[in-house]
Specification:
The complex is a heterodimer of chains A (about 180) and B (about 130). Chain A has about 180 residues and is α/β, with parallel strands linked by helices. In chain A, about 40% of the residues lie in helices and about 20% in strands. Chain A folds into two domains: about 120 residues, Alpha/Beta hydrolase fold, catalytic domain (Rossmann fold); about 40 residues. The two termini of chain B are about 25 Å apart. In chain B, about 30% of the residues are buried. The chains are: A alpha/beta (about 180), B mainly alpha (about 130).
């Protein structure tokens, strides 16, 4: 419940209209725009700009049926101002929190960046796996197959159907007397 | 027959493992996205048949000769199997999960080749089967 509240959408008064914000876990309020519907595109501005710098591109894609989302980085634009958290780790966490909040279909999100490698790279890393993970997956699969064979070898004959049993018995190594 | 089936799969996996480093970083990212986007059961469904085809030599050897080619195919095939909304789970919930944990669910721990599901196989899945 606490997590939900921390990520819930609020509305702030900006320019006379109600604009949505999210509040991150450290209490920072992040302003964002979420226009249209359809396949989403998330854009992220660089220093020292704000989401407004994407308006032209957002309108372009909006008019072509996309859902476009832009946000003000913390300490930028209409998001919370402060001395803390002006680093890529925080920016990345904010972007991850925003996309997690908004994303209704993770596979369809497209991301664009504007002079801002850090947060997007970090956000992508959240879903990146390594060669070692793949190696673990394959070796784990091999281990499961070997264990399955051991399990079947240990089954009593009555548990094995006649056809399989014939093969099973035929493949058992001959015992030396 | 089933023993041979398992052996063929093990041989294929043993051929793939040394080629894991051929997987590009972009493909790794795609696999991560696949993990957090699709239900593990959907990927599990998609992964078993090509494993069998490759293990039995039913497809051209060059098609799945490296881990990069095999998992590259998986990325394409999972998209074909479940276009549109890929997961029934709350996407926010999926996004909050570690992709490594989700990826481990791609393969069944017990009866990984689904041999026990074959009607010709009489012994059935083990008690307390986990997938």
């Amino acid at each position: 419940m606490v997590l939900f509240l921390a990520r819930s959408t609020q509305f702030s008064e900006a320019g006379g209209s109600r604009c949505p914000t999210i509040t991150t876990k450290d209490g920072t309020e992040i302003f964002y725009k979420d226009w249209g519907s359809g396949q989403p595109i998330v854009v992220s501005h660089g220093w020292p700009l704000s989401s407004d710098d994407w308006d032209t591109q957002m309108l372009f894609f909006l008019n072509r049926g996309f859902r476009v989302i832009a946000y003000d980085r913390r300490c930028h634009g209409r998001s919370s101002q402060g001395a803390d958290g002006r680093d890529m780790d925080h920016y990345a966490d904010d972007l991850a929190a925003l996309t997690a909040h908004l994303r209704e279909d993770a596979s369809m999100a497209r991301e664009a960046t504007h002079n801002l490698d850090g947060p997007l790279k970090r956000a992508t890393m959240l879903t990146t796996i390594t060669h070692e993970d793949i190696r673990d997956l394959l070796t784990g699969f091999a281990a499961a197959i070997e264990l399955d064979q051991i399990r079947v070898d240990a089954l009593p004959p009555e548990k094995i159907s006649p056809g399989v049993q014939r093969q099973h018995v035929a493949r058992l190594p001959a015992r030396s007397s | 027959m089933w023993r041979g089936c398992r052996r063929d799969h093990l041989d294929f996996i043993n051929r793939l493992v040394p080629t894991v480093n051929t997987i590009s970083s972009s493909l790794l990212q795609e696999l991560g996205r696949l993990a957090v986007t699709y239900e593990p059961a959907i990927v599990r469904e998609a992964i078993v048949d090509p494993f069998a085809d490759a293990a039995y030599g039913l497809c051209p050897p060059e098609e799945f000769e490296t881990a990069a080619k095999f998992f590259g195919w998986l990325i394409k095939d999972a998209g074909c199997i479940a276009p549109g909304k890929p997961s029934n789970r709350d996407p926010r919930e999926l996004m909050m999960q570690d992709p490594r944990d989700l990826m481990r669910q791609w393969l069944s721990v017990t009866d990984p080749l689904r041999i026990a599901e074959d009607p010709e196989c009489g012994y059935g899945p083990p008690t307390g089967c986990v997938s």
